[in-house]
């Protein structure tokens, strides 16, 4: 089958008609599947709109051409839907997970996440996946009969487990959660109410969304890094994959300017990775022969991934970006200032709760210190970059301009 063609619905796809349902039962829609309703709820959420003003990778100067969390999420959804269509998966569930995956990110990208994790170290720390779960299960206030968005079990599972199981069957944390001291508190608490089976793999739709995130991140951070002048197209020739792509571009278009060379590189890179994931997934599925989404969840390994050689190519790109972009001295300076803004805000609200908006104070008199600290963390995590700076300027005499 051609990579560009839509496959018929596969037996291992998640079937919206057989969804495990919602925590709070709702009558079915006459016009939309459960997964389509989930996707629409994410799109119409306040948290999704706020992604417009949250940075994707915090770079040393802002501009309208750089990625935000919102544009990144849209690009992830485009890649994820393309793969889901090729593999015969449910596109609506895939899109839901792609659009929702960054809802829990705080302001200032990874700098903000590091700062909040440090501030909340004694209260369970901060994990953006756990925060995304909080957003869609409680922090959104749009419906009269329930908190959050009341998404289907499949959407919640995909949000939490798109990178793989969090625990062994016994409940013991595994992987990075073993190394970090346990399951994030927001996930651990929620699964006591609604069991997301943290020991199993997520659906193929969720696994696809995770790899679409990696593909979009790598390709588009290259685009933003080029635009910011942190490196040039020819600097990327140090990696065999990008050197080969650039060589082909230069042979076909010898007079192309730098902007178009970079854009062509990004397009070719995305196509290369999508094709690689499709080919590898097809081979894994042919070997595993899953007959249902249940079989996918209970298989002993992920069924979506890069071939080993492409995984090495992708890791090389991440290493390049880490050295040349994420650790660039101008970026690091801004990240340090951004982390301090978050730490300042957290400590100010902790010492002076009256500086929080009234709706974030009401009914908190009986809260423990830990509950109050987490509430402050939730408030800061929901901020956009711009609002965090406005709040800092309101509460402090001096605020860095982060440029």
TrEMBL record:
InterPro entries: dGTPase, dGTPase-like, dNTPase_2, HD/PDEase_dom, HD_domain, PHydrolase_assoc_dom
Region named Disordered: 1-34
Keyword annotations: Hydrolase
Domain annotation HD: ranges: 69-218
SUPFAM superfamilies: HD-domain/PDEase-like
Protein origin, superkingdom: Bacteria
GO molecular function, a single term: dGTPase activity
Keyword Glycosyltransferase: no
GO biological process: dGTP catabolic process
Keyword set includes Hydrolase: yes
Spans through the membrane: none
Matching NCBIfam families: dGTP_triPase, PRK01286.1-1, PRK01286.1-3
Family: Belongs to the dGTPase family. Type 2 subfamily.
The protein's name in its UniProt record: Deoxyguanosinetriphosphate triphosphohydrolase-like protein
Species annotation: Bradyrhizobium ivorense
